[in-house]
Here is the input.
Amino acid sequence: MNRQSRNPGNPWADHYTRQAKHDHFAARSVYKLQEIQKKYHILRKGDRVLDLGCAPGSWLQFAAAEVGTTGRVAGIDLSPVTLTLPDHVTVVTGDVADFPSHLSRLEMMRVHVVLSDMAPSTTGNAFVDVARSVGLAESALSIADQVLLTGGHFVCKIFQGADFKVFADQVKQRFDRQTALRPQSTRKASREVFIIGLGKKNGKSPSGKQI
Here is the structure.
């Protein structure tokens, strides 16, 4: 992987990487969640939070601080998280696709917030990469259908391209408000954007599943 200093595409890349190190966060991606939190206030003291695709752990760190010791944060990722985290954070090394089998280990059944920073390993083929990203986003939304409390919030990374609007509309159907944000810390060459669902509706998903 190229070093940040060799990436001229975004003059902020080095800034955010250095800032993350200075602030003792695992990755620069934390500032994306920080911007979302400042704008939409999705995390509150005492909340239970599920972080999908949580490695290397910067979102876990940030969410744990926001919800405090009265809250709970659980994360799952194929890659292990090697950070030392607070006692109110639980991490499972596993596949999000096998989510139901991990529920007991995650130590929570219903949550106030579902976060997904999942992204596919990119191939260089935009069509393939976008399709894989949409697949991960749909998996995250399906999990939110299962575990997110009424009134809860959903944050999901997705690559812009075919089916982006279709996915955004799926989120809109489930939440009182749906919006999209491309955080300032996003690299210029990246296709990523975050779809945000605020205030999960009570009732059933469009598929007929109870939510």
Observations:
- The chain has six helices and seven strands.
